[in-house]
Amino acid sequence: MAATGRRHLVKDFNHFITCYLCRGYLIKPTTVTECLHTFCKSCIVQHFEESNDCPKCGIQVHETNPLEMLRLDNTLEEIIFKLVPGLREKEEQEEVEFWKKNQPRENGQENLKYQRPWLPEGAAAGGGADDDGDGGEDGDYHRSDPQIAICLDCLHNTGQSGESTVTDLMKRFIRCSSRVTVGTIKKFLSLKLKLPSSYELDVLCNGEIMGRDHTLEFIYMTRWRLHGENTYPMVLEYRPRIDFG
C-alpha cells in the first residue's frame, strides 16, 4: 500500500524561516557565527548598535564589534524565496521605493552618480564597477542590483616591502552593485594597480579596516551612514596591509 504523504504548507516551516526579532520572513538572512542563530540583516545590525549579545540565546558575540561575526546565508535566502511566492519581487520593489524616498534632493542631473548612494536599475548614471570599460570576472557586475557610488582613495602608508607601493587610481569614482564585497574591491584594486597576487591590501571606512566579506551596502548602512556629516559618494580608503607582528 502506497503511503499518503501530508501536503506541507508554508506555515509548517515558519519556525525556520521567520526572524526572532521582527517575526516576519527572514530578509537577507544573516547568521551569527558564534551561536548560528539567524536573523534579518537589518534587524540584527540594528540590535548590535545597542548590544553585543545574541538576542535569542544571550551569548556575547564579540567584546567590541559583533558585526564582524555576521555572515549572510544566501542558500537560506533562496530557499525562503522558493517557499514564499512573490516575496522576492515584493522585497526588491520595497527596496527600490525606500531608496527613492531617501535619496538627497539634487539641483540638476550633473554629477548625478556621485551624489546618489543607491541607483535603481536603469538610472541615468555612468557605467559599472569598471568605469574605464575593461571587463571583469563578474561580467555584467550585477547591473540589475541596486547600485552604489563610491570613491576609492589611496592612503600612502609604508607597505609590506618597506616603501609605498600603491598609488592613486586614475578614476577614483566608480559605481557598482551594492552587494559587491570588500574582497571583490580588493581584486579590482589589485587589477587596476597591477599588484602581484601575493600583495595584500586593507580597505578602510572612517579609519576602520573592513572585513573581506562585508558588502558595500552593509558598510554604508553600519559605518558610513551613521556619521551624519558624511556626504556622497561613500569614501573607502585603501593601503598596503600593515603587519604589526
From TrEMBL:
The keyword Nucleus applies. One of its GO terms (biological process) is nervous system development. It is found in: Nucleus. Residues 19-57 form the RING-type domain. InterPro entries: PcG_RING_finger (IPR051507), RAWUL (IPR032443), Znf_RING (IPR001841), Znf_RING/FYVE/PHD (IPR013083), Znf_RING_CS (IPR017907). One of its GO terms (cellular component) is nucleus. Coiled coil: none annotated. Keywords: Metal-binding, Nucleus, Repressor, Transcription, Transcription regulation, Zinc, Zinc-finger. SUPFAM superfamilies: RING/U-box. Signal peptide: none annotated. Its main location: nucleus. Pfam families: RAWUL, zf-C3HC4_2. GO terms for molecular function: zinc ion binding. Component of a PRC1-like complex. Component of Polycomb group (PcG) multiprotein complexes; the complex class is required to maintain the transcriptionally repressive state of some genes. This is Polycomb group ring finger 5a.
